[in-house]
Structures are given as structure tokens and as C-alpha cells.
């Protein structure tokens, strides 16, 4: 995408994501992430121009929480933008910071995504997204077995094995990431024996409810030159939405991931994503969706991704590493979930992902967000400055 | 079907659905604020927090200084008496608040910003009655049954 | 901003106390239609409208991801993109401008809505804006916060309630010329003083009424803006800023965040003497006392002297700087939407399309939005037509 000026990621901070964080309140949780991004970027809080702040209000029942969080996120006396788009919020915050810096309006922008899932009722919160007159009473939130059924009809038992294997891979990766929430030691059998939520979707396929926050600092090129931390450059991003009432008879029509990938690849000269992109941090709310979506992002119409999963090609040291962080099935503080994808992708490019670092040079990384009624936000990050 | 009241005649066939978002929330105060809240319950003591960098004593307490971003770990006792600096006499009742807020007062009552002795900032609380003036000294009326919440002080009253 | 951005089309609904005959989608749709028909644009990224910014609130809509249905209305639901600004409407306009100035998009549609009547009380929503440990469960809401700030401001500067009562009177009078306004007419200061006390010193006629409404706008970069309209309205200055959250941390009688926001906007627009260089202003006044108070924050009057500017008639329709010719928020604009309505009114003024409340020859305008308890957050936009100092 054309851009008025280049934007760099100048720092990344995230809390440890946990199932229980009774030791801090919501504002304190946010300040942990801000403290870390300041340390990582070696920037003084007073140099930051603007805060971009987002989560889903009904998860904690706080109206416009950016106002309260001024006491803990350094927002006093600064410009502020509150941007929310459901599950994609985190990636939207990144797009927003990119807009605000590229526009010349601000030079140094702090984006903060967070959620304290333990304070509310996640599924009740999500079901309230449906129209109160038509489908709110029959909504089940993100818990759906439809994708699994379609895949099993198409590819048979192999698909179920692969979905379970993908979950095991995420657990293996998460165990290397001390910030991940679920760091499970599980086997394919454990996954397949876990409780059925909506067949063939099982408990272990599904993402958890986590508490955590993630903050990222974005800088203009001129500003970035003065900052000490290794830079990661914002290459491109795209947002693709589908309607509120989607067509259940033609679920293939919901391929926003494929459309987003097509746009990003075309605009950036990517003809072979597996070769050209070093790592993919994908928003995977469940392993079934992940299995399906990998095919969509990589244009595999015949289920080639199933064999790739069973081959171990998506492992940290595989052909196309996916979610070295452990992904969303391991960590899911919803307002932060998508920004964590971008943050983790940036860490991989910097080579700072510690134990879950992909063991090779990464020039390009992809990070996706998912939310709303099949909405996709896709970001492409790079080690080198983009040529626009 | 929900029919709203008091509509013009041409809108009388407008219906809808009565909804209630009933999501139970649990707000964890965190270790630091919990100490201050527990002191209300167990010791009838009001604790504020002092910034190690700028020395300001904040009431309500908080673990981070808004201006200099210093982490605050010190709680100090303030009050219990204080001075009413600003106030509003509330003349409406909100049925929802009656249900959700402990010991909610019926209107008219006063909502005031009170500067407790020893604190640098003012904090909000209800004050009994409507004949409050700026600069009035007030003291807390402690609830008999306390639950480690700000409403352990039922209200402030003229000292 | 590194690219010039203009508003090329803007429409607003009539504001009603209860639009029971329309769901919020139906309330918004005619506006989208007007904007797209007027410009001849369809939502086709790269070839028409590139992107959508919506502005709404999960609490008022009682709906998680309240922008879910809005994308369908603007057309973003067909492989387009949309982002939601969940604060005052002026911020949605500003953020839309940022997405264009960034070079990412050329034409962006903005759709903002609020239906306060859907909730039993506006206070239930703003109750949830208070942190849950020390303030919310005392029964706090924005109305009480306004009462406390009004007390602070009036006491600090020794301004009587009677003097403030003149503000809703003028708002209602200006509103008579605005066919979209809700609460207008001939009232007297005595009527205001007699009206039901809400949260002292604020009375019923002194406080903005509950209302439903929406705003739709199309913004574009310079070349396309020129092709779309003969009368583009440029965004030449902007600023927004947070103040402290806790009411007791602030000197409630001064507004540091408005001063900072205004200073930034003036600097960018090259304004050194706002009273002389601005031709019209639309500011968000939720309760009477805020009008003179915001004058001070905007740098039009010394602290405590805003009321004199009002009483001198300097901000009347025929004064040096007409303020709120539309009647403003006191005539009925919902929380959240006010800033977008203010920007729309400025747009009409600068295109000489404001009808009976037109300020003659307006070239440069100021739109202001506010969010948070007792004006914690302010947004200021400076708008100008082709003669209004576009850089
Ligand atoms: Zn301090």
C-alpha cells in the first residue's frame, strides 16, 4: 500500500499472559505492558505524542476505559485515540498507529491492547454482538463445529488428526514462551479425548480466556533513526470485512483471509509465501479454524496444509513456521490477542524471541487478526525499509 | 414485544424487544489497592498512596503516578476527617444504582469532592444532607457491616 | 498532515428524543444514501470509497462490536474495511483524515451514530465509565460529574447561576433556526432557573436532553476532493488531549486538556488570534456552565471571564465570533455524537448551506468535541473552505 512516510516499530512490551491476575487491576495490568515497552525501546514517556487504546468494553464492563487508564498508561497531556473492532482490535490498533504516524500527525505513537477476561463472562460478552431481534438468543460466540464438519467431509479422518497435531504443535511452541498462558504438555490423543464443545470441536482445540496486555511503539522514519532499539518496518496492511448476516449456505464466501492474503501478496511481490515469508503469526481461535485458514492464507485448495501439518512443516524449525509464540489457542486476552501477533512477529524479525526464536534470518513476517463477522486484518512486517 | 410509552400517535405501532445485558463482573482490585480496601474494613482506616518521586499523596490510592510514571508502593493513613471542596446536590434517583450500589442514598443527597487531612488530592464520596457549604469539615460514617469496599464508609457527615 | 484532506459531503439526521420507529441501521441508512448519491461514489476500494470509519459505543448500542452492523450500511461488508472510533465523533472525523493523510486511502466514509433512548438512562452507561473501586459504586455518573464541575467553576469565579441560565436561553433561540434541532424555542432565564433541579447547580433546561441521531460524511484527499465537489471543506488544524482521570486530581475550574488541544489546532492552522481569525465555532456544551468555560480553554477569554464574552454579545449570531449558530448540543445531540455534529455544522457554514442559521461569509470554523467525565478529553478541529487558509 502506498504511504506518505515510513513507519517503524520501535519497541514491544507485553505482560505475562495468565488465567489469573487477581494481583493487579485492569489499569495496573496495562501499565505493566507500558513499562516494558518503554524499557524495550529505551524511550522516555514524555517523548510519546499519542496513545492508541483498544479492547472490548463489555468484557470488563468499563465504558471508554482509556479515560480511567490515563492514571496508568502515561496518557496525561497526550493525544489519545480509542479504536476498537472486536477480535481484530489489536491489529486495528497497529493499523491505526501506522495511519497516525504515516500521516505526519504524530511522530511517536504508543498502541495498547489489553483484556482482563477473568473479570467478566467472555462468551456472554461475545454473544451480545448478535442482533437482539434475530439471532442473539441462539448465538454461541466463537464456539462452532461447522468448519470441522466441512473439513472432515472433504478430507476425512486425516483432517481431525491434523487439527489435533496442530494443537500439539502450538502447545510445544507455547512451552518455549514463558509469557504464553497455556503451556500444556499434551499429545494428539489428549486433544482427541478432550470434551466435545461442538463436534468435532473439542475443549483443547479452543482458545482460553486470558488476562494480559501488549503495547507497541511506532515511530516515523526520522524519529526511528534516533532510537536505539532494532527497527522493524511496517510494510503493508489490509482490512477485509464481510456482512453482519452472512450466508450460512455458502461459507466459502467468507474467505476474507484469502482475499486479504491475495491483496498483500500482490502489492508486495510475494509469489511464493512459504519461501518469501519467514514466519506467520496467525490469529487461531481454534485449531480447526487454524487448519482451515492456513489453507486460505497459503492458497491451498486441496488441503495440502493438512499434510504439511502432519509433516511438521509449520514447526519453529520447519519450512514455514506458524505461531512460534504458541498462538491464540495458548494465549487469548482478546483486546490484546491480535496486537500480540504483530508484536511476536516483530520480535522474530529482530531475533529477540528468546527460546521460541525461529532459527534463521527473517526478512518478512506476516501477522493476522480475526474478529467480528469474519473480518481479517493482515499485516506484513519487514527487516528492511519498504521501497514505496 | 416491547411497546415504548409516551410515543406520538403515528408511532404507536413501533415495537421492539426489552433486553438486559446481564453480565456478572468481578473487579479485582489488585494487591496494592486491596490493602487499602481491607484497611477500610478491618481498621476503619483510610489509606492514600504516596509517590516516591514527586511526593504527592494520592487519594484514591493508586500504584502508578500519572505524571512521572513512578511505581508507588507506599500507603499512608489520611483523614478520617476532611474538607468539602466541591459538591453537587443530587436530585434524581436512578433505579439501577439503587440495585447495584451498596447503601445507595435516596435523593436528595450530596456528592462531594473531599480533601482528607494529609492528602494532596480530593476524593469523591456521598455526604448526608443537602445543606453543605464549601469548606465544611466532614467525617466518615462507618458502616457496621463492612466488606472492604469504598461503601464501608456509608457517607460523610458534618463533623 | 502530510496530505491535504477535505470533507466533501456531510449529512445529519433530525435529532429526536426517541426514534422508536427506526433501528439504528434505519436511522443511518438515509444519510449514507445522501452522501453516496451526492458524490456518486460507491464503496469499491481503489475505485470509489476506499475505507470506512464508524463511531459508536458498545454500551449505548448494548452490543459487543457495535460496528458490526455499520459496515453493511456503508458497504464495507463487501470485502471492504472498516474501523471504529469509540469516543467522541470529532475524533472519528480526525482519525478518518489520518487514514487519508497517511497515503493509505484516498476516500473514506465516516458514519457515527448514537441512540441514547435505547438505554433506560444515559446515566447507566456513564456509571460504567467510573473505575469500580473508589468511585463507581458510590452511584457516580457523568451528570453528577458535571454538577461537581459546575459548582467548582461557578464558585471559583463567583459566577451566579442566573448568569449561566442565559446560556440555554440563547441555545434554544439559535436552535429555532435549525430545523434538525430537538429542544428549541423561546424560554427565559426564569424558565431555566425554575426547571427541575438535576444535580446542583445544573437544572433540567441547563443539561443536554436525551436524543437519537446520526452523522455521515465523506472525506477525500485533495485531487479527488476537487473532482467530487466545488466546495471542499479542509481540515487545517487539529488537536486532542487527555486530562487527569480522577476529578479530585484536577482543578475542575480550569481545562488544561482543552487548552493543549486548542493550542495544537491553532498552531497547525496558523491561527494566532482565534477571535479575529475564526468566523464561526461549534462547541460541545453539555451543560450551560461549559460554554464560558470552554471559551476560556479555547483561549478566547481570560480564566473566569468567558461569561463576559458571552454577555457582551461577542459570540451571538451577529457578534465577533458566532458560537453554536445551530443551537449546539444543548438543543439535543447525544453523547458521543456531538463532535461529529459540530463538524457537520461547520461544514454547512463553510459551504454557505446552513440555511437560516448561516453566518455570512464564514471562511474558517472551529469544531469541538468532548469525552470523559467533566471534560477530561477534548478534541478541536479547525476547518476552512478554499478562502479559509488552506495551506
Ligand atoms: Zn509522582
Short description:
The complex is a heterotrimer of chains A (388), B (159) and C (391). By secondary structure, chain A is α/β, with parallel strands linked by helices.
Order of helices and strands of chain A: EHEHHEHEHHHHEEEHEHHEHHHEE
Largest two-chain interface: A-C, 67 and 66 residues
* Bound molecule types: zinc ion
Number of distinct helices of chain B: 2
What is the multimeric organization of the chains shown?
A: heterotrimer
Query: Largest sheet of chain A at a glance?
Result: 9 strands, mixed
**Coarse structural class of chain B:** alpha+beta
Structure description:
The complex is a heterotrimer of chains A (388), B (159) and C (391). By secondary structure, chain A is of the alpha/beta class. Chain A folds into two domains: 7-123 and 210-224, 3-Layer(aba) Sandwich (Peroxisomal Thiolase, Chain A, domain 1); 137-208 and 234-382, Peroxisomal Thiolase, Chain A, domain 1 (3-Layer(aba) Sandwich). Chain A has 14 helices and eleven strands. In chain A, the strands form two sheets. Chain A has a nine-stranded mixed beta sheet with strand order 3-2-4-7-1-8-11-10-9. In chain A, β5 and β6 form a beta hairpin. Chain A is globular. The model of chain A has no long low-confidence stretch (mean pLDDT 94). The longest helix of chain B has 14 residues, at 30-43. Chain B has helices spanning 30-43, 95-100; strands spanning 46-50, 57-58, 74-78, 82-90, 109-116, 123-127, 137-142, 153-158. The mean pLDDT of chain B is 92. In chain C, the strands form two sheets. Chain C has a nine-stranded mixed beta sheet with strand order 3-2-4-7-1-8-11-10-9, with helices on both faces. In chain C, strands 5-6 form a two-stranded antiparallel sheet. In chain C, a hairpin with a 2-residue loop joins β5 (197-199) and β6. Chain C is globular, with a radius of gyration of 19 Å. Classes of the chains: A alpha/beta (388), B alpha+beta (159), C alpha/beta (391). β3 (79-84) of chain A pairs antiparallel with β3 (82-85) of chain C, so a sheet runs across the interface. The complex binds zinc ion.
Amino acid at each position: 500500500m502506498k504511504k506518505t512516510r515510513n513507519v517503524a516499530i520501535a519497541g514491544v512490551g507485553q505482560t505475562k499472559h495468565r488465567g489469573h491476575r487477581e494481583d493487579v487491576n485492569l489499569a495496573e495490568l496495562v501499565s505493566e505492558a507500558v513499562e516494558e515497552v518503554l524499557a524495550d525501546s529505551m524511550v522516555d514517556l514524555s517523548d510519546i505524542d499519542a496513545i492508541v487504546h483498544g479492547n472490548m468494553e463489555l468484557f470488563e464492563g468499563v465504558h471508554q476505559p482509556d479515560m480511567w487508564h490515563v492514571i496508568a498508561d502515561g496518557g496525561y497531556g497526550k493525544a489519545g485515540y480509542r479504536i476498537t473492532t472486536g477480535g481484530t482490535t489489536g491489529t486495528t490498533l497497529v493499523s491505526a498507529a501506522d495511519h497516525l504516524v504515516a500521516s505526519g500527525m504524530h511522530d511517536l505513537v504508543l498502541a495498547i491492547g489489553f483484556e482482563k477476561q477473568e473479570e467478566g463472562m467472555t462468551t456472554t460478552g461475545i454473544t451480545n454482538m448478535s442482533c437482539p431481534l434475530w439471532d442473539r438468543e441462539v448465538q454461541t460466540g466463537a464456539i462452532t463445529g461447522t468448519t470441522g464438519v466441512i473439513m472432515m467431509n472433504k478430507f476425512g479422518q486425516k483432517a481431525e488428526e491434523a487439527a489435533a497435531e496442530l494443537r500439539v504443535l502450538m502447545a510445544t511452541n507455547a512451552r518455549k514462551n514463558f509469557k504464553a498462558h497455556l503451556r500444556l504438555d499434551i499429545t494428539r490423543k489428549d486433544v482427541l479425548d478432550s470434551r466435545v464443545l461442538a463436534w468435532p470441536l473439542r475443549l483443547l482445540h479452543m482458545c482460553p480466556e486470558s488476562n494480559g496486555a501488549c503495547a507497541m511503539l511506532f515511530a516515523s522514519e526520522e524519529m526511528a533513526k534516533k532510537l536505539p532499539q532494532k527497527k522493524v518496518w511496517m510494510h503493508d496492511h489490509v482490512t477485509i470485512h464481510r456482512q453482519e448476516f452472512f450466508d450460512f449456505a455458502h461459507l466459502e464466501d467468507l474467505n476474507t483471509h484469502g482475499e486479504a492474503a491475495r491483496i498483500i501478496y500482490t502489492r508486495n511481490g510475494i509469489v511464493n509465501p512459504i519461501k518469501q515469508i519467514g514466519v506467520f503469526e496467525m490469529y487461531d481461535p481454534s485449531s480447526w479454524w487454524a487448519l482451515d485458514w492456513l489453507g486460505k492464507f497459503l492458497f491451498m485448495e486441496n488441503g495440502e496444509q493438512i499434510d504439511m501439518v502432519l509433516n511438521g512443516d509449520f514447526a519453529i524449525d520447519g519450512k514455514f513456521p506458524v505461531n512460534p509464540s504458541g498462538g491464540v489457542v495458548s494465549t487469548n486476552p482478546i483486546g490484546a490477542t491480535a496486537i500480540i501477533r504483530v508484536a511476536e512477529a516483530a520480535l522474530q524479525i529482530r531475533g529477540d524471541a528468546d527460546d521460541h526464536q525461529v532459527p534463521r534470518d527473517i526478512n518478512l513476517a506476516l501477522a493476522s487478526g480475526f474478529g467480528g463477522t469474519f473480518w481479517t486484518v493482515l499485516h506484513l512486517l519487514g527487516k528492511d525499509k519498504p521501497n514505496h | 414485544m416491547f411497546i415504548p410509552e409516551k410515543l406520538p400517535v403515528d408511532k404507536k405501532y413501533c415495537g421492539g424487544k426489552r433486553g438486559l445485558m446481564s453480565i456478572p463482573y468481578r473487579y479485582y482490585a489488585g494487591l496494592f489497592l486491596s490493602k487499602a480496601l481491607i484497611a477500610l474494613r478491618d481498621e476503619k482506616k483510610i489509606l492514600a498512596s504516596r509517590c516516591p518521586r514527586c511526593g504527592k499523596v494520592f487519594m484514591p490510592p493508586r500504584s502508578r503516578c500519572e505524571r512521572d510514571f513512578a511505581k508507588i508502593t507506599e500507603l499512608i493513613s489520611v483523614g478520617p476527617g476532611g474538607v468539602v471542596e466541591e459538591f453537587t446536590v443530587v436530585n434524581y434517583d436512578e433505579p439501577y444504582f439503587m440495585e447495584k450500589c451498596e447503601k445507595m442514598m435516596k435523593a436528595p443527597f450530596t456528592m462531594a469532592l473531599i480533601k482528607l487531612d494529609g492528602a494532596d488530592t480530593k476524593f469523591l464520596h456521598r455526604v448526608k444532607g443537602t445543606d453543605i457549604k464549601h469548606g465544611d469539615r466532614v467525617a466518615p460514617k462507618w458502616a457496621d457491616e463492612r466488606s472492604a469496599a469504598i461503601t464501608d464508609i456509608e457517607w460523610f457527615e458534618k463533623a | 498532515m502530510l496530505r491535504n484532506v477535505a470533507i466533501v459531503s456531510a449529512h445529519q439526521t433530525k435529532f429526536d428524543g426517541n426514534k422508536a420507529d427506526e433501528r439504528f441501521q434505519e436511522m443511518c441508512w438515509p444519510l449514507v444514501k445522501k452522501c453516496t448519491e451526492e458524490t456518486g461514489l460507491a464503496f469499491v476500494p481503489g475505485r470509489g470509497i476506499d475505507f470506512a470509519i464508524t463511531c459508536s459505543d458498545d454500551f449505548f448500542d448494548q452490543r459487543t462490536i457495535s460496528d458490526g452492523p455499520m459496515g453493511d450500511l456503508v458497504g464495507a461488508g463487501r470485502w471492504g474495511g472498516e474501523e471504529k472510533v469509540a469516543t467522541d465523533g470529532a475524533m472519528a472525523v480526525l482519525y478518518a483524515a489520518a487514514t487519508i493523510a497517511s497515503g493509505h486511502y484516498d476516500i473514506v466514509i465516516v458514519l457515527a451514530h448514537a441512540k441514547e433512548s435505547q438505554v433506560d438512562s444515559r446515566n447507566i452507561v456513564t456509571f460504567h465509565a467510573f473505575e469500580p473501586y473508589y468511585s463507581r459504586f458510590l452511584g457516580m455518573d457523568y451528570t453528577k460529574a458535571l454538577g461537581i464541575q459546575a459548582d467548582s467553576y461557578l464558585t471559583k469565579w463567583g459566577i451566579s447561576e442566573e448568569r449561566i441560565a442565559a446560556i440555554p436561553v440563547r441555545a434554544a433561540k439559535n436552535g429555532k433556526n435549525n430545523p434538525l434541532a430537538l429542544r428549541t424555542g423561546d424560554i427565559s432565564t426564569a424558565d431555566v432557573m425554575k426547571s427541575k433541579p438535576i444535580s446542583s447547580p445544573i437544572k433540567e433546561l441547563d443539561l443536554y436532553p436525551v436524543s437519537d441521531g446520526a452523522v455521515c460524511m465523506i472525506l477525500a484527499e485533495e485531487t479527488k476532493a476537487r473532482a467530487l465537489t466545488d466546495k471542499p471543506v479542509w481540515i487545517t488544524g487539529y488537536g486532542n488531549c487527555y486530562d487527569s482521570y480522577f476529578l479530585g486530581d484536577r482543578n475542575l475550574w480550569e481545562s488544561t486538556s482543552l487548552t493543549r488541544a486548542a493550542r495544537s489546532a491553532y498552531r497547525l492552522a496558523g491561527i494566532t488570534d482565534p477571535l479575529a481569525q475564526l468566523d464561526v465555532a461549534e462547541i460541545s456544551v453539555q451543560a450551560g456552565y461549559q460554554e464560558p468555560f470552554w471559551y476560556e480553554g479555547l483561549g478566547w477569554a481570560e480564566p473566569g471571564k468567558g461569561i463576559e464574552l458571552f454577555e457582551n454579545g461577542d459570540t451571538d449570531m451577529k457578534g465577533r465570533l458566532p458560537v453554536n449558530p445551530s443551537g449546539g448540543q444543548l438543543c439535543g445531540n447525544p453523547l458521543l455524537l456531538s463532535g461529529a455534529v459540530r463538524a457537520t455544522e461547520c461544514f454547512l457554514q463553510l459551504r454557505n448551506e446552513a440555511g437560516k442559521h448561516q453566518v455570512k461569509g464564514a471562511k474558517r470554523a472551529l469544531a469541538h468535541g468532548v469525552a470523559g467525565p467533566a471534560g477530561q478529553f477534548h478534541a478541536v478541529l479547525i476547518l476552512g473552505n478554499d478562502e479559509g487558509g488552506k495551506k
